Amino acid sequence: MTKSPFPDLPAPATERRPVEDTRHGITRVDEFAWLRADNWQEVFKDPAVLDPAIRRHLEDENAYQTALMADTAELRKVLFAEMKGRIKEDDSSVPMKDGPYAYGSSYKKGGEQPRFFRTPRDGGPEDIYLDGDLEAGSKAYFRIGGVDHSFDHRKLLWGVDDKGSEFYTLRVRDLDTRADLADTVADTGGGGVWDASGDGFFYARLDASHRPSKLFYHRLGTDAAADRLVYEETDSGMFMNVGGARNNDWIFVVINDHETTEYRILPANDPSAGPKIVAPREPGLQYEVEEGGEEFFILTNADGAKDFKIMSAPATDPSRTNWREVVPHEPGRLILSVMGFQHFLVRLERKDGLPRIVVRERASGAEHMIAFDEEAYSLGLGGSAEYDTTVIRFSYSSMTTPTQVFDYDMRSRERVLLKTQEVPSGHDPDHYVTRRVMAPAADGETVPVSLLYHRDTKLDGTAPLLLYGYGSYGITIPAGFNTNCLSLVDRGFVYAIAHIRGGKDKGYGWYEDGKREKKLNTFTDFIAAARHLVAEKFTSHDRIVAQGGSAGGMLMGAVSNMAPDAFGAIVAEVPFVDVLTTMLDDTLPLTPPEWPEWGNPIVSEANYRTIAAYSPYDNVAALPYPPILAVAGLTDPRVTYWEPAKWVARLRERSTSKNPALFRINMDAGHAGASGRFSRLEEIAYTYAFALKVTGKDHVPPSS
């Protein structure tokens, strides 16, 4: 790209108000720290209280990116129409059986929000008990959180956030009358768990820093202000949530950070009981407790089981001294999750980079695997809402195969296809090619890269390519079916996912090799993937559009500093780019729980220097940056809006190229962007239009 496709317009000037910060004898200067609102906690709940000077700056940024992208207005409409055309507007899930009913969700044609319904267990008319479109009304933002019916099927607990700040209000609905009761609880994480009788529920309340620090029990008909405090977590570095068992006998309180876990349990039929510890927290000890009737199943990395093993323990005393091995640790086979049923134990695991489902008969220990044919695919274990059943549900897709939903009888091994994702505008898998290649990293490792492209796309180095990456928290990006990316692929793009270190794509060790002092591997893996794709003639460097969000946005910032020549453009969505400043501020919502992932630079000079060496904002330099698009939400409690705002301002000051840095901020949303399904498509259409614009790609898709 020799000539900029953007008009030569002046970018917003960001006032410099230098602030010094000295830690471990090292002084940094932040010229744009003022963009962080002093009252950020209040802004999350009420955006109207944002400092007018900051609001003006953000609005100027939006006006600038609007002007630079003005010539894509029609293209965005076309892209939106294409993506919307691939969605079955009145789509519905396959209802899942639970007692006398089967529960599901659906959309109505033109609807933005989901509707929740139930039918008689074996089929019949749909009874819509919660209509998201009706509840949303004209609100600029609306998202439904947890939706959970009581065990007697007479009441519904549901959460709603209408700011994008992820402070949810819990409400209770009478499923006979459809009226919401007077019982409401504000400032929660969005969900809760009913007690066995349905007379009340357990929930976690968020503090002013957006941390779920207190677990309460609310009895219906009482004032929420008088709710009983069940447990308080005093360690600000730990997350906390609450869950329940499918057979309605236990409440699970889960306390964890990114590498340490502690479970506390209490009987669901005795809300007054105090929670009992399963195994006290030990640094590095992770475990999950799953129901099993008179015993619990425990998925854990105890005793050096890096890729996890499964233990059992009596439900009456599940302390660690009573753990007994059920499925041993096998290096290279990462057990991801486990589900217990009356007669079976089911686990989802990953081996050789691919997921698989294994069914184990509890009485005999005999196992069998549910087999799949394709060499690269995505798998989801939905399980069952019931405990005493032989039928589980799972989903399957690949980059060319639409999602399929199956019921599977664990005893007869019969697999029943319930639903195949419909693409109303049409989809022929034979028009597309999917591949997995291995990119060599500098240290001898190989990085898996999943590819999708149109069969007519020429692989001679001229094709544009969107390279997506994440690489943090052990999250694996599946090679699943994505109807949206077809709008790029049909225009000659290669769509690529780099399965870089920091995820668990190649086992738990792949995650460990991409965190803290080894974080640099995440970035160099991504750059290695880009260089390999160029070497193999899939694309050329000036045709690569790199994309990542949240921690993947940090990846975008880091690689743009490390190898700006390797990419033709960068799309950073809700980017975590001011890593050092955020990790130094323990008042921010997620900072203390994040220290195990990144390190604690407050107490450790070594951690400080490690983070400082890659933190994107701190390493912006006099470099020829490619065009960069940053996208954020004003009320985002996970990656605060001021991080990308500051980053873009510094990029403009220091870049030696004339390529623009655009900052688009949704003033009515948070981390997940727009809440409606079609509103979200408009945001995707914008980023895709940016990708097409910077690559100069023909906007007309090839005939198929």
TrEMBL record:
Residue numbers spanned by region Disordered: 1-22
Q: Which is a GO BP term held by this UniProt record?
A: proteolysis
Domain of life of the native organism: Bacteria
This protein's UniProt keywords: Hydrolase, Protease, Serine protease
The molecular function terms of the Gene Ontology recorded here are:
serine-type endopeptidase activity
**Record domain Peptidase S9A N-terminal: where:** 14-420
Which InterPro entries does the entry link to? Answer: AB_hydrolase_fold, Pept_S9_AS, Pept_S9A_N, Peptidase_S9_cat, Peptidase_S9A, Serine_Peptidase_S9A
Residue ranges annotated for the Peptidase S9 prolyl oligopeptidase catalytic domain, each copy included:
481-697
Family as reported in the entry's similarity comment: Belongs to the peptidase S9A family.
User: Mind telling me what this protein is named?
Assistant: Oligopeptidase B Serine peptidase. MEROPS family S09A
Source organism of this protein record: Mesorhizobium australicum
The taxonomic lineage of its organism, from the top, reads: Bacteria, Pseudomonadati, Pseudomonadota, Alphaproteobacteria, Hyphomicrobiales
